[in-house]
Each structure stands twice: as structure tokens, then as C-alpha cells.
Design brief:
This protein has about 300 residues and is α/β, with parallel strands linked by helices. About 50% of the residues lie in helices and about 5% in strands. The longest helix has 25 residues.
Length: about 300
């Protein structure tokens, strides 16, 4: 992706080097992950974490997916003072990349909201962190992957996720990383349009299986919105970029992760969509280029 001539975003918050005040190891982050939309967090990395944990621990990933509980901060950690922030380090190439990708989402969605909806677009903040972070949706850890918190309208990202995506899941490339950012910003678009709140209310009135199905439609719509962003920035793409995004979407499909973890696939437990669905909706966003093209909730076939 050609970003050398693109501007940097003013909406980056660097919280690296700060203490998150998160205790209790992986359990706190996993609780937030399993809360799904009900816990407020939405992200591309959630199911990846479940797959990784299952592979590492040698357990059935459906045991993790079947767990419940919100992602609140452990009571003894609430109000715990943070350590002073470390002096900001010199920006890395990845810092610049993330900042410029975020800027392209700001420009693209500002134009899209104006032309398609007649509304002003309010950009999210993107928080860089390492290890753990305190978000408006509660405590989170890097193992959860990137996520969007609708409570504070912020995307949270530990850049080490990109290394994990390339090394463990065979989806390297700058555009694969850009797709991840665009997907999380897609959740912000959903939040601005009231879709997130509607989906969360619907999940609270239904069974776990039906709530999972709603989550799939939410995630696939975010994939589609990432495709809309990609189409709006087609002039910045290089040969092979779209293939990188497709590989990333394939690598983190629910069926691919479940098959790798346990050798079988249980569709009713899907929360993000199959590999085929994720690539299909990203491509639909690229082909359609509009928010209207991404109505997963009225689609008969995902």
C-alpha cells in the first residue's frame, strides 16, 4: 500500500509504556473476550485468541466459546493508580503506517458519510498499547487482539498482533495489517449508525446460538465496510494487496480456526463468520463501495 504521500492522523493516542492496572493474568482479558458484543468490545482478533488458547492448552475451543461473563475490571483493580507514562519513543515505520492508514479511513468515511448519508463523520481515536490497557469497555490485554470499544469510541491496537497474524496464521503484508485496522474502524461506523446498539439489544433477548448468529452478521458487516474503505483508496493499492487482505480474512475465519484447533467445525458456535463469508463480504464492500452494499442483516445468504 502506497502511503508515503499520505498525511498522518491526529487521532493516535500512544499509551505504550504506561501501566494498565490489569491484574489476574489472562483471565480478565478472556472474560472480556467471551462477553462478545454483550461486553461492549468488538474486534477482529477475538476468535483468533480462542483458537490460539485451544492449541496451546490442548483443549476444545468450544469450551472457551461456551463460557460467559462480562469483561469488567476486577474490583480490586478499579481506581488503581497508573505509573507515569514513559518518555515517548521515536516513531517507528509501523507507527507511521498505522497513523497513515487511520488517516485514510478518516478521509474516506468523511466523504462517504457526506455523499451517502448527508452526515458528518466523527473519527475514532486509535490507542496504541503493549501488554494491557484500560479501555472504556473494561480491562483488556494484548492476547485479545485489536478491538473497538463503542463506550469510548476508540480502537485499541497492540502492533505485535500483526507479527502474530503473519507468523502464526500465514497472513503477512502491509495490506493485511491495514485490513485489520479498517475492520475495527468499520465497527466504529456501525456504532455511529446505531447498528451496534441495536445488535446488542437483540442479543440480550435471544439464545446463545442466535446471539452468535447476530455477532456473525455484525462482524461480516465490518469486513464489508473494510472493503468499502479499500475501494475508496484503490489508487493507493499495489499488486497483491487485495490478496493479502483475502488471506488474512481466510486465516481468521471461524471454520479455519476451529478446524485447526480440534479438527471439526461447529457452525452454530461461529461469532465472526467462516473464511468464505469473510472474504465474500470484504469483496462485496469493494465491489459495491457503499454502506448500503453492506446490509448483512437483511441478507438471506451470508
Amino acid at each position: 500500500m502506497r502511503l508515503d504521500d499520505e498525511r498522518d492522523s491526529d487521532n493516535i493516542e500512544d499509551m505504550r509504556g504506561q501501566s494498565s492496572g490489569i491484574g489476574g493474568g489472562l483471565g480478565g482479558g478472556l472474560g472480556g473476550l467471551l462477553g462478545g458484543l454483550g461486553g461492549g468490545r468488538m474486534g477482529i482478533g477475538g476468535l483468533i485468541v480462542v483458537g490460539i488458547l485451544a492449541l496451546i492448552l490442548g483443549i476444545n475451543p468450544l469450551t472457551l466459546l461456551g463460557g460467559g461473563g462480562g469483561g469488567g475490571v476486577p474490583s480490586q483493580q478499579i481506581g488503581q493508580p497508573q505509573e507515569p507514562a514513559a518518555a515517548p519513543a521515536e516513531r517507528s515505520n509501523m507507527d507511521r503506517f498505522v497513523s497513515r492508514v487511520l488517516a485514510t479511513t478518516e478521509d474516506s468515511w468523511a466523504a462517504q458519510f457526506k455523499s451517502e448519508l448527508g452526515q458528518a463523520y466523527v473519527a475514532p481515536k486509535l490507542v496504541l498499547f503493549t501488554g494491557g490497557v484500560q479501555s472504556g469497555c473494561g480491562a483488556a490485554q494484548s492476547a485479545m487482539g485489536p478491538f473497538y470499544c463503542p463506550a469510548d469510541s476508540k480502537v485499541y491496537l497492540d502492533q505485535s498482533f500483526f507479527d502474530e497474524l503473519a507468523r502464526r496464521f500465514g497472513a503477512p503484508g502491509d495490506f493485511a495489517a491495514a485490513y485489520v485496522i479498517a475492520h475495527e474502524v468499520g465497527h466504529h461506523v456501525q456504532n455511529l449508525l446505531g447498528i451496534s446498539e441495536q445488535a446488542q439489544r437483540a442479543q440480550g433477548r435471544t439464545s446463545r446460538t442466535e446471539a452468535n448468529a447476530i455477532s456473525v452478521r455484525v462482524e461480516l458487516q465490518a469486513d464489508c465496510l473494510a472493503g468499502v474503505w479499500a475501494k475508496a483508496n484503490a489508487d493507493l493499492l499495489e499488486p497483491g494487496d487485495v490478496d493479502e487482505a483475502m488471506r488474512a480474512a481466510t486465516a481468521i475465519g471461524d471454520d479455519t480456526l476451529q478446524r485447526a484447533a480440534q479438527g471439526t467445525v461447529v457452525p452454530e458456535s461461529f461469532t465472526h463468520g467462516s473464511s468464505a463469508q469473510r472474504t465474500r463480504w470484504f469483496k462485496r464492500g469493494m465491489d459495491g463501495g457503499t454502506i448500503a452494499a453492506c446490509d448483512t442483516f437483511r441478507a438471506d445468504r451470508l
